[in-house]
Amino acid sequence: MPFLSRIKKEFGFNRGTNELDKTDRGEVVPIATNRPKLTVDCKMTPSSSPDKENELNCIDNVAYSTVVPKKVMESSELHAEDNSGRGTKSPSSARGRKGSDMKYSSASPPTRQARVPSAWTISDRCFANGESSSASSPETSFADSYDEQFELYTLDENEASPESRAIIDEMDQIYQSLPMPESYLMSPPKKLQLLPDIVLPSKQTSMSEKVTVPKKNMDSSELLVKQGGREQRGGLNKDGGVESSRVANEPFATRIAGAKTAYDGPRRNVEETFGKGKGPNMNGNRRNSSAPNDSRGISAPREWDMPSEKDTSSMNLTPSTAVTTKRKPLTVQREEEQRNQRVKDAKSSSNERDGRRNLDKRTARLRFADAFTADIMQHRQRQPYLNCGTNHSDKSGSQIQDRGVNGVSIAVRKRPMFDYELDRGDYDVVSIDNTTEMTHDITTVHNCVMHADMKRMYMKPTSYPVTAAFDEHCCDDDIYRHIAEPLVIDAANDGVATILMYGQTGCGKSHTMSGIETRASQGLFQAIDFKFACKPQNDRPMITIQFVELCGSKVCNDLLVKNSGEVKLVDAEDGSVHLLNATSIEVKSPEELLGQIMLAKGRRATEATDMNGVSSRSHAVCQIEIKCKQPGSNRGLLTLIDCAGSERSHDSMYHNSDRQKESAEINASLYSLKECIRARANKNGRIPFRSSSLTRILKESFERDGARLCVIACVAPNATDTEHTMETLKTVAGIVGVDDQIKEEKAHEVSSHLLEAKPTILPPSGWDHEHLKKFLALKKMERVLLTEKHDGKLLMKMSVPQMRAQLFDDRDKELAQKLFDLLRKENDRVTAIQRKERAILKKERKERV
Ligand SMILES: Nc1ncnc2c1ncn2[C@@H]1O[C@H](COP(=O)(O)OP(=O)(O)OP(=O)(O)O)[C@@H](O)[C@H]1O
Q1: Distance from the CA of 520 to the center of ligand 1, in angstroms?
Q2: 722 among the known binding-site residues?
Q3: In angstroms, rounded to a whole number, what is the distance separating the alpha carbons of residues 516 and 520?
Q4: Do 378 and 757 touch, CB atoms closer than 8 A?
Q5: Of ligand 1's atoms, which has the minimum distance to the CA of residue 606?
Q6: pLDDT in tens, 218-252
Q7: Which of 477, 501, 497 shows the shortest CA–CA distance to 489?
Q8: Pairing relation of β-strands 457-466 and 748-750?
Q9: Which of 154, 230, 278, 413 could be joined to 274 by an S-S link, Cβ 3.0–4.6 Å?
Q10: Least confident segment among 72-76, 428-432, 491-495, 813-817
Q11: Ligand 1 atom nearest to 609, measured from its CA
């Protein structure tokens, strides 16, 4: 049998023989075994002698040739995938001795220069490259010259003939006798680096489990041992999988274990494995030599082709290769995971019938919305004046402010539900009762909670007392008339008045403040006009405005003038705190005042958050000073503060670190504000106003006698924000020291049969006698003569003359007409609400189905 055919049969060549044939040089037969650690590079001398002799020649030459462990053979191995038709060459030429014969033999171990490629490291390769530069043309990169040296072929060890085994054994012996290259031993970096944990996105690497590169620097063997006790040398076999170059107890592994090869980060590892800038293109294919190269014609790993999904499905990457995937920051990964989980939870809600899935409470609230809303409706049915929309229309403004404690009052404004909230199945869990004749109003939050079994539900209503509460039907006029107007009049009369918006982001602080600003501009000038109506024009006070924003804990920016310098807070001699460098503009008309306010607000720092597209990320402080010209008179001061929205950890969960820091600072300043107002309201000694810039600015408001301060807490009604609403209400109740009056009602079970509960608010025709009596008392219709038989249904059937005759002893026509109208109006209101609720329920049910 001809020699080449014999080799082919013996060593199981499945390719490459063509190249051998083609080259017809008859000099190099590269042979690899499927013990991938051994790559035998044979050199044969052309001979016409019998096959046996040829084979012996081959063995002889192999003995002089090289054993190439997988580590240094990856790239060349990959080249084997490329049937480019290039011939194989002697490994010796890789070291710049192209065409020369072997320089060392088993009898004489190689010198440093004659080191076998099996022991080559990066530096050896570079060394070889350097050497080769003298012999090869400068254009010939190391990569190219090296790649051309080897073609690898696999041989099944079990199929190998005794001769083949002899070759392998001999190669092993040669291999073991070779010295460890100095450069290899010296390879650990002098300086150890801490590495970040690397979690590989499974999509890109198709690894079944995450590979985490420990932060600690490890030597490579340590790292490899960690990965299942086998040495993983980071190479890709022709199938794209990782080839284990040698089991741990094999000679090379022993050497590696001894060598202190530091694992200097995945990139370094890749570079050490394949040569700087060299590496597989992840498809297991030979790198295209025309690929972009660095100065030595070697492309950096980041330039390697990324595997297609199909290719990666069978790929098992080690950390060294996996590093080539671009890693997202951990915060971003976490964000994505949490978001995906929430989306998944929401989506799966319709699929899971038994409800035994662990859900976060917000998701659970939406999922069991029908049952919860039915329960809340029942509650409201028992107390028909909740959210009824009177909003103190029967009271004068000062009546509400007089309820305050030591000049501090707390108002709550509930905003309406937004369409997008209704669309996602959210519902109203805040009930306002502002009809009582008590010194405070009640805001009830219906906390919808799941039992631990995630099947049963319970409701835990909590009631918060506040100076005044306004439901979703209130308008800006109501707020101004009852809350702001008395304070504006106070300021016009040389008092110090402060209105402060507080609450969760996106709950309507800026909206409410805008309404107040518009009306206050008018109101202030009206009050001054009124005060100085009979006085000479020259006596009129000078009205100036300053508008600054407080960002974070220290920064204070002027908003009236663009790009003016930073504003400093300085203590003035009279004890007040002045805004140094802040522009002060005199205004002479309400329009001018409002114009300046609008201008300044336009320059305020806002940012889009999950809760609000234009969330204010600073406290806006507008100070309107009323300076009287008469000597000895106090200055009047109206301060309008729109605080930045407070955020709970959930809201800031998706923020970057800057935003989280900013949120923390906002919350800290709001906390110190609360402490100061609380101290002012309770008159309990020192007011810690120095704890933040916000409280420093408000020093006069805290300390001046007769100063009045009103905190308007804005709350969102939706179930998703229950915790935040409760937190806001608890805080404001604490400010005026009524937090001990917060009433947590006993929790009660919510049964699913409530799903079919009737709409809650009853029209007058459904009222019983008691209900009717309460209504008439509320509307101040005490003169109506009611007997036990009178109920809503009966009254709704009466005409005005009948009412005159039956319900009023003096047959008062006006009152009878008023009662008639009131009942019709209430009927219209309730039917409108019922219609709306029915539409919402219908929509929600439809969506759930
Ligand atoms: N009572 C209300 N009636 C109608 N719309 C309202 C009401 N309150 C708030 N909104 C709307 O809600 C959105 C958010 O309100 P706003 O910007 O006032 O919230 P915010 O509390 O100031 O938020 P942030 O603290 O993030 O600045 C706005 O589009 C606003 O018009």
Answers
A1: 19
A2: no
A3: 6
A4: yes
A5: 27
A6: 444 444 334 443 333 334 344 434 333 333 333 33
A7: 497
A8: antiparallel
A9: 278
A10: 72-76
A11: 26
pLDDT at site 810: 86
505 known ligand binder: yes
Token pair recorded at residue 393: 């229309």
Q: 750 C-alpha to center of ligand 1: Å?
A: 32
Q: Are 430 and 725 in contact (CB under 8 A)?
A: yes
Give helix then strand counts, H and E, for the chain: 31, 22
Q: Which residue's CA is the nearest one to ligand 1's atom 26?
A: 615
Q: How many CB atoms lie within 10 A of CB 469?
A: 28
Q: Classify residue 775 by its DSSP letter.
A: H
The rounded Å distance from CA 616 to ligand 1 centre is 10
Q: What is the residue extent of each domain of the chain?
A: 3-183, 194-327, 331-357, 486-504+535-707, 764-848
Q: How far is the CA of 721 from the centre of ligand 1 (A)?
A: 14
Whether 233 contacts 71, CB under 8 Å: yes
Give the tokens for residue 291. Answer: 């690929």
Whether residue 640 is predicted with pLDDT greater than 90 in this model: the reply is yes
> What does DSSP say about strands 708-715 and 496-503: parallel, antiparallel, or unpaired?
parallel
Pocket test for ligand 1, best of 500, 612, 643, 663 (most atoms within 8 A of CB): 612
What average pLDDT does the structure give for the chain? 66
Chain centroid, CA 155 distance in Å: 53
Q: Which atom of ligand 1 is nearest to the CA of 645?
A: 25
DSSP β-bridge partners for residue 606: 616
Angle (deg, nearest 10), helices 162-177 and 51-64: 20
How is domain 486-504+535-707 classified at the architecture level of CATH? 3-Layer(aba) Sandwich (3.40)
Q: Is 582 in contact with 542 (CB distance < 8 Å)?
A: no
504: annotated binding-site residue?
yes
Region of 229 (left: φ > 0; alpha: ψ -120 to 50; beta: rest) is: left
How many angstroms does the Cα of residue 184 sit away from the middle of ligand 1? 66
Annotation-wise, does 96 bind a ligand?
no
* pLDDT greater than 60 at residue 725: yes
Q: Residue 651 — very low, low, confident or very high, per pLDDT cuts 50/70/90?
A: low
For residue 65, say whether it is annotated as part of any ligand binding site.
no
Q: Which has more pLDDT, 838 or 588?
A: 588
Give me the pLDDT at residue 685, please. 72
Tens-digit pLDDT profile for residues 350-392: 444 444 456 677 777 887 888 888 888 888 877 767 777 677 7
Distance 580 CA to ligand 1 centre (A): 32
For 730, other C-beta atoms within 10 Å of its C-beta total 14
| Among protein residues, the one whose CA lies closest to atom 9 of ligand 1 | 508
**Ligand 1, CB cutoff 6 Å, lining residues:** 415-416, 503, 505-511, 612, 615-616, 644-645, 714
CA of 510 to the centre of ligand 1 (A): 6
Residue-wise over 534-552: b if at least 16 C-beta within 10 A, else e? eeeeeebbebbbbbbbbbb
Instruction: Tell me the pLDDT tens digit for each residue of 568-610.
Output: 888 877 777 888 888 899 998 999 999 999 988 887 766 555 5
The residue nearest atom 2 of ligand 1, judged by CA position, is: 415
Name the percent of the chain in helix, strand, coil, to the closest 5.
45, 15, 40
* Top mutation candidate among 476, 510, 721 for ligand 1, by most atoms within 8 Å of CB: 510
Q: How many CB atoms lie within 10 A of CB 630?
A: 9
Nearest ligand 1 atom to alpha carbon 514: 18
711-720 burial code (b ≥16 CB/10 A, e <16): bbbbbbbbbb
509 is in an annotated binding site: yes
pLDDT band at 543 (very low <50, low <70, confident <90, very high): very high
DSSP secondary structure of 28-45: EEEEE-SSTT-EEEEE--
* Torsion of the alpha carbons at 674, 675, 680 and 681, rounded to the nearest 10: 60
